[in-house]
Amino acid sequence: MVKTLTIVLDNGRALNWNLDFSEHGTLQMSTFAFCSKLPWVALDFCKCPTCTLDKETNPTCPVAEVLAKYARDFSDRKSFERVKVHIVEEDGRHIILRDVPLQNVVGELVRLAVYQSGCPVGRKIKPAMTRLHLFPTNNEILQALALYFAFQSRGTSKAPEDLDEEQSKFMQSLHDVFGCLSKRLENAGKGDVYLNAVVIMHSLSLLFSLSAPELIKNAISESRFW
Questions:
Q1: Cα Rg for the chain, rounded, in angstroms?
Q2: With 0-12 CB in 10 A as exposed, 13-18 as middle and 19+ as buried, what is 25?
Q3: What pTM did the predictor assign?
Q4: What H or E segment, with its residue span, contains residue 15?
């Protein structure tokens, strides 16, 4: 599990974040005071249609709150910038990645925020996402989604590569999460990096929905654990 993440920009400035995961792999909500001053972090600001949270107990959107500091730090950054990434894991292992597109970094933060925070939609698929290493490829994310739905279908009468009505509705709710998040971030800054990152993650979810049978069939044939 990742403990800290440091991004070194091209001007030498370092941005440091602690990724606070619970023992169950859930990314904890941020406690930064400035979150309450950001309108787009409020739960009712472009709330997802299927969100089951109540503003009395959850005044802020879990995904938006996790991303608030990142959005502030990257408010004027551009997607094409390249950075160095220093990862420290809980076991003390250090990983350094060089010349990484900033868009990829923010895309990973968006993935973690959606799938491993307290979002009632994204956390349904957390078991598939927690198996991935940090900064997975798009194909690895698609394969994780495919295997998740394939394993859900084991023991049922339907073909594992076909999404049933409930699974299709879930994917639509996931599309809504990314769509609403894009609207939340529209006024978060002048840069384009976090919006582009959300668009990419949204596109992956759409691609999965459109190609689910083929992706699931390929994932099953390639998996050693099937």
A1: 18
A2: middle
A3: 0.85
A4: strand 14-18
DSSP string, 43-67: TTTT--TT----TTT--B-HHHHHH
Q: What's the rounded Cα separation, in Å, for the pair 75 and 14?
A: 15
How many whole angstroms separate alpha carbon 81 and alpha carbon 96? 17
| pLDDT beyond 60 at 136 | yes
CA–CA separation, 100 and 165 (whole Å): 39
18 has which bridge partners?
A: 4
pLDDT tens sequence across 23-39: 556 665 555 555 667 88
Pick the range with the lowest mean pLDDT from 55-59, 165-169, 210-214, 219-223.
219-223
End-to-end CA distance of the chain: 25
What H or E segment, with its residue span, contains residue 220? helix 193-222
How far apart, in whole angstroms, are the C-alpha atoms of residue 22 and residue 20? 7
Of 112, 102, 171, 113, nearest to 136 by C-alpha is 112
Range 198-209 burial, b when 16+ CB lie within 10 A, else e: bbbbbebbeebb
Question: Residue 175: enclosing H or E segment and its boundaries?
Answer: helix 165-185
